[in-house]
Hints:
By secondary structure, the protein is α/β, with parallel strands linked by helices. Helices cover 43% and strands 18% of the residues.
Amino acid sequence: MKLSRKVPLNAIRVFESVARLGSFTKAGEELGMTQTAVSYQIKLLEEHVGEMLFLRQARRSILTATGERMLPKIVDAFALLTDALADAREQADGILEIRSTPTFASHWLARHIGAFQLQHPGLAVRILRMDKPAEFSIDNADVAIWRGERPPTDMEAQELFRLTYAPMLSPKLAETIGGATTPADLLKLPLIGASSKWWGIWFRSNGIDTALPGTITIDADGALDLEGSAAIAGHGVALLSPFLHREELEAGRLIMPFDVFKTDDLSYWLISPKSRRKSAKVIAFREWIAKTLPAWVSPGQ
Length: 301
């Protein structure tokens, strides 16, 4: 059975207007109905509920106890409907603002967001790189791609992926030592990255437990896009993500001589304020990224 046949929706709308204005006559004027038509709709609703909803007085209609109980939820229901319509308009003509970690923004999101826009041609997308967690109470962001151990408890959160890393370098740099054929060969080259901890983990996982040569260069403070650019330019070997640098690997600007990965300790999350959980544009982006990412993030990456 259709909802419209089960619930007298028109009568509910009339009830809300009468309750708010305290008058059958004023409700009729607001809704473009005669007072008789308003009375008829209220009668239908009272028959449906099985209780009187208004006490008719000379100059004012007062809610009964049953009407008082009904009104808050009906007001909330109409607010939800209003939000749904606003979201629909926002979806058609609005802007989706995305805050993202820099490398994911430049190396994946910017390269693939066009597919999302083709599916939602009326929705403009603004991508802003961020170096710290988004502050939704201050920023205009709708969603954020955030890297951390666990998401903030006051946010809607969806875990996206956890990166893995492997040494990458330019082919020309590899040629300077006759090619990188064993993990020990990398000790002959500058190592990009301010922290030697990850390099130590990678070398030990390959059976090399020795002090690093002290040729760590290019302090990019963990910014993978900057470290990747330095590696492409031939300045050293960087621990990079095969997922984020897939295009550079496929184009031959970088090579990945060893298939041994270090998995990140932190995950990437899609987060948004709980107040926007029913926003059409947020739902659309959440569904799109959940469907699109798995094809790019393979178990080995």
